[in-house]
From TrEMBL:
Designated name of the protein: Uncharacterized protein
Highest taxon of source: Bacteria
Amino acid sequence: MVNPPDTVSVRLVAHVPWGDDLPDGTMTVGAEPGWGAFEVPGPRQVPVRAALALAAGPGGVVARVLDPDAHPRPVAVRVGPAGSTFVPLPGPPLALAPRADGGLWMLGADGLRAVGGDGVAGPALPVPGVAAVAADGDAVWVVGLDEAVLVGADGSVVVRAPWADPLGSVGLGGGLGRLDAGEPARVLRLAPDGTLGTTPLPGVLSPFERLVRASAGTFLTSTVGELVRYDDEDVAAHLTWAGAGLSTDGDAFAATVAGGRASVSRGDGGVAVLDLAGAGVPQGRVVAVRDDDVLVWDGSAAAWFRDGEVHRTIDVDDAVFADQVFPHAWRADAPYPFVAGPDGTVLVASSGPTGAAVLAVRWETAQR
């Protein structure tokens, strides 16, 4: 057993079983989701499941329900400490934002609507946009390609301001934040009164980096498959993501990888360290945990580990993936799966054999 340099802990927030509103359907796609146009070894056709797309804010956590083809269904999931509830919607949502009154904001093709927890929808407000970001007091930012509009809890427009990068924008209390990759790199902040502020960041941002959270001189960002933490003076740490889901006994797991080794953290506090490079799966994703066994998949190869040691390796093609990997696999395939959660956690949604799981991950960096 090797102690990882950073501590990653995980807990289950909600398990949403497959059912009528979250159907256990699959479809086969012609390229591995999230890998883009890169030519990679392994199966050419892979099945994918329905998924949850999370949105969090002062009013709680909600999620869109995405069919396997990534199209949203006209239903939302309200995630709460007492369990998850489905909220019917008047149409497929482009984006959602939670409200503390038990309802949510829905951004659709016809504008913005307030929807109660019982599914009763208010009239469409003529506020078009691409993204919805929850703000304090049940307000919501509707963010378009070149403008952000703050809408109050009563549906009135509070402020309009020039703004860009809707998909990279996050809530900062009552305001908005996003990254600006200029020189120097910085965090842009849009206050509820429409004034703009900036905070410089150390180092150079990657082309695909997005802001996750900004608080007390610490900034958390994400790239494709990686979390990055900045402090006031330097880049504090990088964390490479390698999967999350539920074990067969319902315990949460989250995996990270560094130096050819994966650290698999369990909700019960246990951590297993796996030698991926030695098993021939150096870029592997941890997709399943079964008792003391861990399944890692890396394109054309997969390996089962038992008690931290390689137990069995598998050559993977389309048929083998569908028969021996996919039935066990938990996947969080969104390129940017991380959403800022409460108490300094990061939320991730993963889909697997028994439904969808919402997980809270806490990352504590070691002293450098």
